[in-house]
Design brief:
- This protein is of the alpha+beta class and about 325 residues long.
- The protein has seven helices and 18 strands.
- The chain has three domains: about 100 residues, no CATH class; about 120 residues, Jelly Rolls (Sandwich), CATH 2.60.120.1440; about 70 residues, Phage tail protein beta-alpha-beta fold (3-Layer(bab) Sandwich).
- Helices cover about 30% and strands about 35% of the residues.
- The strands form three sheets. Strands 1, 2, 3, 4, 5, 6, 7, 8, 9, 10, 11, 12 and 13 form a 13-stranded mixed sheet that branches. The protein has a three-stranded mixed sheet with strand order 15-18-17. A two-stranded antiparallel ribbon has the order 14-16.
- Helix 1 crosses helix 3 and helix 3 packs across helix 4.
Length: about 325
């Protein structure tokens, strides 16, 4: 029983029901079906709805054609099963799509363009502030509230709902709002989470942690949890176009600038790649930022073209 990777749960459920009633159902099919049911709670819900719809559709009278030649019962039985499935596809799946949009929410993509932060307010009052160059996908439904930080940084001010806690996917980890205001940043090799109010649950395949107000943490790109540290309101100073760094790797600093301005920033040598920055940097003025970095870290800054800048240590490696 093969399922195309793009098949929806509804299509898989209908195809499964058809094969179960076709006489070609095997133990291998049964094993694969059981794994699919266990993969997500909604799979069983969808399948049960398909079964119920099929049972109703079977009540439709489908008599064999009255021809002068004989029709094998098994052949008619097969086409009767297919006919039931077609009825379900025509009636159930469009209705399920509308139900699913209401239950789980329709995905909505929010994008902040280069050097243009933006704020979005969702239907329940939750506010998401997106730094420049950031993209977030939200799904607000009757069952749950979910967001995915695709790239960039966002400050979530969540309208708390214990029945529908907000979950956020970022890279290889998951965050759960426990009534909070928190900042999330997806860097090239890590995800950083800073909690200003309330608390946030952090979970990856390597472990779990609870971050409370005034603390930060996150995880590496591999999913390994980062140490919990103290943070303050300066973590959101990006909203005013500035950032404070504390021994931050130059690669991460350039990643933030590149995202904000839509310019490729590369490091030319290993000596520069090992540098770290401490201090405050103006982020909304790229030429000023690069001049500041050049002075503070003794870097040569070379504009290759208007979309590409190369930085190297003075004197090379």
């Amino acid at each position: 029983m093969g399922w195309p990777f793009h098949s929806t749960p509804e299509h898989i459920a209908v195809r499964t029901w058809v094969k179960q009633h076709s006489g070609s159902w095997t133990e291998r099919d049964a094993k694969k079906f059981a794994q699919w049911l266990e993969a997500a709670p909604e799979h069983r819900i969808v399948y049960n709805k398909v079964v119920a719809a099929c049972e109703c559709a079977k009540q439709v009278q489908m008599e064999p054609p009255q021809q002068t030649w004989s029709v094998r019962p098994s052949l008619f039985s097969h086409w009767r099963t297919v006919g039931v499935a077609l009825i379900v596809c025509a009636v159930f799946i469009p209705g399920w799509k509308r139900f699913n949009d209401w239950w789980n929410g329709t995905p909505v993509t929010w994008t902040a363009q280069s050097n243009a932060p933006r704020t979005v307010t969702l239907t329940d009052g939750t506010r998401i502030e997106l730094d420049a160059g950031t993209q977030v996908i939200t799904q607000w439904g009757a069952r749950a509230r979910h967001a995915t930080l695709v790239h960039g940084e966002a400050l979530f001010s969540v309208s708390h709902n214990s029945v529908r806690p907000l979950t956020v996917d970022v890279g290889r980890g998951h965050l759960t709002d426990l009534g909070t205001v928190f900042d999330v940043e997806a860097l090239a090799h890590s995800v950083r989470v800073s909690v200003l109010e309330g608390s946030v649950g952090v979970r990856t395949r390597h472990g779990e942690a609870i971050l409370t107000a005034g603390h930060g943490g996150g995880y590496e790109g591999t999913g390994e949890l980062l140490p919990i540290t103290r943070v303050d309101s300066s973590v959101t100073s990006w909203r005013e176009g500035v950032r404070r760094f504390d021994a931050t790797a130059l690669t991460d600093v350039l990643d933030m600038l590149s995202r904000r301005h839509g310019v490729q920033l590369t490091i030319a040598d290993d000596a520069a790649a090992r540098l770290r920055l401490s201090g405050t940097l103006r982020m909304d003025d790229l030429p000023l930022s690069l001049r500041t970095l050049g002075t503070a870290l003794q870097l040569e800054v070379r504009w290759i073209d208007e979309h590409h800048v190369e930085l190297s240590s003075r004197g090379g490696d």
